[in-house]
Amino acid sequence: MNRADPKETCCHNDVMTPSLQAVAGLLADARSLSEVAREEASSFRSNYGHDIPLKHLSDRVAMYVHAYTLYSAVRPFGCSFILGSYDKDDGPQLYMVDPSGISHGYWGCSIGKAKQAAKTEIEKLQMKEMTCREVVKEVAKIIYIVHDEVKDKAFELELSWVGEVTNGRHELVPKDVREEAEKYAKDSLEEEDDSDEDNM
Amino acid sequence: MEKRCTDSQVKGVSTGTTILAATFDGGVVIGSDSRASIGGEYVSSKTINKVIQVHDRIFSCMAGSLADAQAVTKAAKFHLSFHSVQMETPPLVIAAASVLKELCYKNKDELQAGFITAGWDRKNGAQVYVVSLGGMLIRQPVTIGGSGSTYIYGYVDAKYKPNMSKEECLQFATNALALAMGRDNVSGGVAHLVVVTESGVEHVVVPGDKLPKFHDE
């Protein structure tokens, strides 16, 4: 499984080796939440002797985010959080936490400024039947599609993945795969532009 | 005549017990004797249970000071049941062993308790873990503990084979306990055995007079 980062404010971090996270929103909030997730994963590992299952980590981060919606002395976190992992027993997992403190598991999800448009594109994909490499290309394409040439600033695509292809480690997508994905994305966009011109 | 020290809190000495656990093909056998003694002079209980169920498929044998061991297993049992509810799944055996290890390690100055934690979970199957007095955690296919264990290291080394059948493993464990109880004055009573597999838990109690007898008995 992989995910492409939403543009503008984005970063991806390691929580613990098996899982990755992507964030969108206020970067400072995201970094602080990232640290929370790391501590939760670390203390779980220390107490229970095995790596934290992703659902549980997601629940814990969500509970933490939710707590900040309860009191007037603090403001809610201004960021959304995607967590992903791969385990040979549980397979690939994807969870998202939003500022209200809700956490759900997903086959595909999007966060950030153009999340609605990205969501529409994701719904067209049949993720269950695709391999990791195929999904990388589709995801790159979606990022290019939702980027508004007029309103948005130039962006740089960051791709990372975790899965059987990386033996469960979170890694940046290798250069050749990334270039292939970017080329596929740009070519698809040009095709659509061309077809628009024909219709006129 | 010198009065023997009746203080059973001597640091570093494991007090009257024989406990063991062994993995076989598809499960694990856990066993213990049932004697509790004070200073090696007086048997305070002939039928104490040293194999505690900390979760549906996870058991823990106590060694060392029984008071400390009971307190620790009680705390661990609560912690594990809470953990299991949070995770919405039965705990892994390594999680149970780690909970006991944390208690033993963090409180090593006050406690004198060691454990053998064994059981079955969906992810890694049958497992046996040793949590020693100071809080070391290590996984082994077969392990023995307590004062009576010193007399059966040779037997266990020679007779244990991995992937035995359930019956072979039960016989192995019964023999080991009988041999230890036969030589160690602070181990005795009945042999408590528990067999844990994916399908369930089976308790076997072998009274003292039904234990296997060897050439000199």
TrEMBL record, chain A:
Residue ranges, compositional bias (Acidic residues): 189-200
GO terms for cellular component: cytoplasm; nucleus; proteasome core complex, alpha-subunit complex
Family annotation (SUPFAM superfamilies): N-terminal nucleophile aminohydrolases (Ntn hydrolases) (SSF56235)
Subcellular location(s) of the protein: Cytoplasm; Nucleus
Keyword Glycoprotein annotated: no
Source species, domain of life: Eukaryota
This protein's record includes keyword Nucleus: yes
Pfam families the record matches: Proteasome
Gene Ontology biological process terms, A to Z: proteolysis involved in protein catabolic process
Main location: cytoplasm
The entry's keywords: Cytoplasm, Nucleus, Proteasome
Signal peptide: none
Region listing for Disordered, in residue ranges: 172-200
Compositionally skewed regions (Basic and acidic residues) per UniProt: 172-188
Family statement: Belongs to the peptidase T1A family.
Role according to the record: The proteasome is a multicatalytic proteinase complex which is characterized by its ability to cleave peptides with Arg, Phe, Tyr, Leu, and Glu adjacent to the leaving group at neutral or slightly basic pH. The proteasome has an ATP-dependent proteolytic activity.
Protein name: Proteasome alpha-type subunits domain-containing protein
Organism: Perca fluviatilis
TrEMBL record, chain B:
One GO process term, biological-process aspect: proteolysis involved in protein catabolic process
Pfam families on file: Proteasome
EC identifiers of the protein: 3.4.25.1
Chief localisation class: nucleus
Top-level taxon: Eukaryota
Its biological purpose: The proteasome is a multicatalytic proteinase complex which is characterized by its ability to cleave peptides with Arg, Phe, Tyr, Leu, and Glu adjacent to the leaving group at neutral or slightly basic pH. The proteasome has an ATP-dependent proteolytic activity. This subunit is involved in antigen processing to generate class I binding peptides.
Places the protein is found: Nucleus
UniProt xrefs under InterPro entries: Ntn_hydrolases_N, Pept_T1A_subB, Proteasome_sua/b, Proteasome_suB-type
An MF annotation (GO) of this entry: threonine-type endopeptidase activity
Protein name (database record): proteasome endopeptidase complex
GO cellular component: cytoplasm; nucleus; proteasome core complex, beta-subunit complex
Catalytic activity: Cleavage of peptide bonds with very broad specificity
Family matches, as PANTHER family: ATP-DEPENDENT PROTEASE SUBUNIT HSLV, METALLOPROTEASE TLDD
Active site residues of this protein: T17
Quaternary assembly: The 26S proteasome consists of a 20S proteasome core and two 19S regulatory subunits. The 20S proteasome core is composed of 28 subunits that are arranged in four stacked rings, resulting in a barrel-shaped structure. The two end rings are each formed by seven alpha subunits, and the two central rings are each formed by seven beta subunits. The catalytic chamber with the active sites is on the inside of the barrel.
Keywords assigned: Cytoplasm, Hydrolase, Protease, Proteasome, Threonine protease
Class of enzymatic activity (EC top level): hydrolase
